[in-house]
Amino acid sequence: xxxxxFRLITAVLxxxxxxxxxxxxxxxxxxxxxxxxxxxxxxxxxxIAPGTVTTSSDPMLTVSGTVTNIGDRVVDxxxxxxxxxxxxxxxxGLRSSLRLDQVNYEVTGPFxxxxxxxxxxxxxxxxxxxxxxxxGEGASLGLTDPGVYPLLLNVNGEPAYGTQAxxxxxxxxxxxxxxPAAGGEAGGATEPVPAPADATPVATxxxxxxxxxxxMVAGRPGSVNGQAxxxxxxxxxxxxxxxxxxxxxxxxxxVAPGRERGVASSVCIAIDPDLVSTVQTMTRGYRVLAxxxxxxxATREGTGAASAQxxxxxxxxxxxxxxxxxLPFAQVDVSALAAVNDPGLSARALLAPADVxxxxxxxxxxxxxxxxxxxxxxxxxxxxxxxxGYGTAVLASTAVTSDDAPSDTENALxxxxxxxxxxxxxxxxxxxxxxxxxxxxxxxxxxAAPATTDPALRVTTFDIWSATALAAVGSNPPTPSFTPSKxxxxxxxxxxxxxxxxxxxxxxxxxxxxxxxxxxxxxxxPPQQWGANREEGIxxxxxxxxxxxxxLASPRSFTDLVAQAPDxxxxxxxxxPRAAQDAAPERFVAPIHAQGARITELMRALVELPExxxxxxxxxxxxxxxxxxxxxxxxxxxxxxxxxxxxxxRRIDQATRELDNMFASVSVLPPGGxxxxxxxxxxLLLVARNELPVAIRVQFRxxxxxxxxxxxxxxxxxxxxxxxxxxxxxxxSDSRKLVIPISLTTPDGVALxxxxxxxxxxxxxxxxLAIITACAGILLLLLAGRRLWRRFRGQPDPADEEFxxx
Length: 806
What we know:
The protein is α+β, with helices and mostly antiparallel strands and about 800 residues long. It is built from 19 helices and 36 strands.
């Protein structure tokens, strides 16, 4: 009895403890940051209509969503309501307002019942409607002026053993370009409130990136008939119907190009050359690793050849009618590339992309404009861009500061600043510069780089707040490196519909908030590996069109943007600390530099033959691209970059092994046994083998012993995938067996293949034979002279006595 009473008291205390804790759950931190408290409900937004409010919109806001019981107990009396905060009054508020506590959302609507009870795992869809403006019957959001308003959807419920509490919420931005008419008291009506008409339309440019993580298997040199190998077949899915890259192209196809001042004129497609070259190889058939973690393992036939061809054809059609610009190869880390300091790798990453894109898509892309994936570069990277003919770099606004307008305090310098010359203002008002200029460096541009008479590098900046909002649109949203740490949070806690709303609000904010210290211009920059789908992309494009129709924005081409004139104020270039944290690790710099140098050494020895199908450039370029892919910033915006490091290290190792094989493929065939020379001046016969599919120039390195004199035959050409015999003029002055070390090198003296040795024996007797021959000759002369002397004196020779007796 005592034990049973004890168990009863324990159970009661447990229940009371649960009741005490639950109110704290109701005040969870925004976006789920209060993760230490138990979670009972998950609120997800499915749709918001209208997404952008105008004078012709429905006067009622409709929010649809789903409530899911993710806890371990029943929740009763589930209800939701809408709340509104004051309009966003600063660019940073586009992000910080999403972290406001619910008490800051002072305008509240009534609770609306969703479900009487939700069991664990059960979900229920709902729809909430509320008037935008006051004046009619019922509650409203009380909107009076255009602006961008933070809204909160709050869900309450009563978990078992607990009390009624706020169990989750969802936040989003509502852009209001104008207010529709609303019903008034006694049947009256309020007039529509139009958008501000006294401000200059915002000159708007949108970059539309098409990029993907590197997919090619490393360590595969170029060939004529060989099929490419990919790590997986995910790219086939991405370019196929409904895939990520297919939907990005489909969204662009919804914009009618060619219309004067249309939305299409404001868009520039930024294309990763690694992506389009990989897709092009897929069209010819390709193989896929059976296991991506085993690069040397079995492969299977790829399935995306037809999808790749269809996607490329559609992209070619777009590129022919819209602005295009090439991204650095494989989203390479330009600062890490500058640290590697290899001319061949730099040229492939920065000079080749535009030519690759143009050749595949049949277009002429914009030249001399660099779009580093990080949005922030250090001084050596700026010098590298300028030395390769880049006149303009596109960077985050916080990556450039001036004395009178310092950057966010979260973004302190991590390297010595570069004092900038006057910048360039983009847009109609000379207020805050969008473009600045970095002083040039005393580095001669390579021959392949475009000639330039201006040594300065200009920097076009984009707004980090709209860029952060655009990055959150779609699947797998990253938080960019340039987003300040004080407003960084996991955006995946928000639904896709909410994240799209935030981007629509960010695009509209500058147009709705004119100020003397802000330019009437904006460059919209999504992340290069963007996850927006077709519907989301179309919604963003329509937002620009809607702003244009309301005279709040005017489309501006990317070409016009980068062609603006300088601003007279000095600026400083900063390398943001988070960009340095997300960069390719420094430990990769030395091995990539070493392998890049080996590629250059081998390239100098290879020879292009008119009759050969494969050129040295086509053969060696994949090796350079492998090293560049190891420096890619793709998938590095995560708290754990272990996988990115693993893939990069694997690429470096595979490229190193392949280069080892290339150098070992050119060698001298070791002769069997002892090589016997017919005479002391007989030539030495050697056979050299070249297993490479391209011709190569070589030299013999022969360490001749003192007893031999071997003539240097100079540079020789070895045919592709073949052997060649050589006669090396040789003189041997010793009949002993001699060991002669022999190896091959490039004309620059770089060793090729494994060294070998030749054992040589000459049939000549050398110095001893010469002495014996001389002595025999002298003896013969003496004997002949003796006989002649005796005959002259008439004395018979004793040697003839035997013949005379016979």
